[in-house]
Design a protein that fits this description.
- This protein is 39% helix and 14% strand.
- The protein has helices at 31-41, 63-71, 86-98, 114-126, 141-149, 169-174, 198-211, 234-238, 274-286, 292-295, 297-303, 316-319, 324-338, 359-362, 367-378, 404-437; strands at 47-48, 109-113, 132-137, 153-160, 166-167, 180-186, 214-218, 244-249, 261-267, 342-343, 352-353, 356-357, 380-381, 383-384, 396-399.
- Strands 2-9-8-7-6-3-4-5 form an eight-stranded mixed β-sheet. Strands 11-15-14 form a three-stranded antiparallel β-sheet.
- Helix 7 (198-211) links the parallel strand 6 and strand 7.
- It is globular and about 70 Å long.
Length: 438
């Protein structure tokens, strides 16, 4: 007779995410989007005003950009140089030279799968545990998340809402410590729509120079400035005295978000940055290369700027005074400012409005709860302000890409929702006063 061994049964382990993700958030695509998808699965139509995704709102790339990628699909089967194809890197360098930044070389241009990948890659190359990185509040949340992921410490400096959302130079200065290694600026700004003044950009470059900081300049919206606003490149202000990494790409201005065609260009004292550049090159090699077909869009997109005084030849409906985006941003801000207890600094660039709400009037203690309630009742999806690392739950971001009629209806829905919420707060206040009077 054979005896069978009794198998030992172990309890099923709990599989947990890395502790490094503890402080990493990306609420633009977080739990609120999950709830929106659940509502859509139930058959509800959700107006997604949470992402600056151009194509779903009818904003298409120029045909020659798409054709350039299609022509190179066969060549795109092969790996490229880990930094990106030479012709695209040269196009980026030439783009910045046309803007007056003579220090850019294709040898110090790295292509990537959008700016988001390059933010993470660059911070991995430069941040040691405990290093402090100055990041704006509000910010594009990938910056704060990527700093946390590398073991660094994001230190948030405040943008000044009363000064057109320009960063407060005094607040930045007050937060520099011996552990500070870099200063991030996002200009034109997501989520506020600010376009920083020349004084602000020069002031930030000067702080970086005096404290020996690396300047990390996120300029993905550089072409999307409206009215009399002017975009000022941080690399111009930094010159050869400050190491400046300028992040840009085609996603927004050239309407090809899905091509993931981004870059980072390094300028300044390159001799002092040889070790850092070696680290960026190492990480570029480890990811093998960026998406190759999307890289072929870069030379065609940027070549149009050779005849353009502003460095580009974008579609007139985007950049001309009164064009679609400019008029929609202005209209959205005006409608938001008509809502009682809501104020919105009119955006001068990018794609967004970032209005403030009166917390007392609307009984807001948790802005995530506010936007979830708005989503469930009005089927309009926006993003709460604390998701952009703003310290108070009193703002939200709305994407202004839908055509004017749809955008106006969305803001009307927000107004109706807030009116119901205000009435509920009034009712609770009256009930409380009634109880106290008994």
């Amino acid at each position: 007779m054979h005896s069978s061994a009794t198998a030992t049964t172990h309890p099923t382990p709990t599989y947990r995410q890395s502790a490094r993700l503890r402080d990493v958030r990306y609420d633009v695509r977080g739990p609120i989007l999950t709830e929106a998808m659940r509502l859509e699965a139930e058959g509800h139509d959700i107006l997604r005003l949470n992402l600056g995704n151009m194509r779903p709102f009818g904003l298409q790339a120029r045909p020659e950009i798409v054709d350039a990628v299609a022509r190179e699909l066969d060549a795109g089967q092969a790996y490229s140089d880990s930094r990106g194809i030479p012709v695209a890197r040269e196009a980026v360098a030439e783009h910045y030279r046309r803007c007056g930044i003579d220090l850019v070389s294709p040898e110090t241009v790295f292509l990537g799968n959008g700016v988001s990948e390059l933010i993470t890659l660059t911070l991995q190359a430069m941040v040691n545990p405990g290093d402090e990185i100055l990041v704006p509040a509000p910010d594009y949340p990938t910056w704060t998340g990527a700093v946390n992921l590398t073991g660094g410490v994001p230190v948030h400096y405040l943008a000044d809402e009363d000064n057109g959302w320009n960063p407060s130079l005094s607040d930045i200065e007050s937060k520099v410590t011996p552990r500070t290694t870099a200063l991030v600026l996002i200009n034109p700004n997501n989520p506020t729509g600010a376009v920083y003044s020349e004084e602000t950009v020069r002031g930030m470059a000067d702080i970086a120079r005096r404290h020996g900081l690396i300047l990390l300049s996120d300029e993905i919206y550089e072409e999307l400035v409206f009215g009399d606003a002017v975009h000022h490149h941080a690399a111009l202000a930094a010159g050869d005295a400050v190491l400046c990494l300028t992040f840009g790409g085609l996603s927004k201005s050239y309407r090809v978000c899905g091509y993931r065609a981004g870059w980072v260009a390094v300028t300044g004292p390159l001799e002092a940055a040889e070790d850092l550049l070696e680290g960026i090159t190492l990480l570029s090699n480890m990811r093998v290369c960026p998406n190759v077909p999307g890289q072929y869009a870069i030379p065609v997109a940027l070549a149009a700027g050779r005849s353009g005084s502003a460095g580009s030849d974008l579609p007139s409906d985007i950049v001309d005074p009164g064009g679609r985006l400019e008029s929609q941003l202005a209209r959205a801000a005006a409608l938001l400012n008509e809502i009682p207890g809501v104020s919105c600094v009119p955006p001068r660039g990018a794609l967004y409005c970032f209005p403030r709400i009166d917390r007392e009037m609307y009984g807001v203690d948790d802005d995530e709860e506010l936007v979830l309630d708005l989503l469930r009742s009005e089927h309009v999806l926006v993003t709460h302000g604390t998701g952009f690392n703003w310290p108070e739950p009193d703002h939200f971001r709305i994407v202004c890409l839908p055509e004017a009629g749809v955008l106006e209806e969305a803001i009307s829905s927000i107004a109706r929702y807030l009116e119901r919420r205000r009435d509920a707060v009034r009712g609770q206040t009256a009930a409380g006063e009634s109880v106290r009077s008994v």
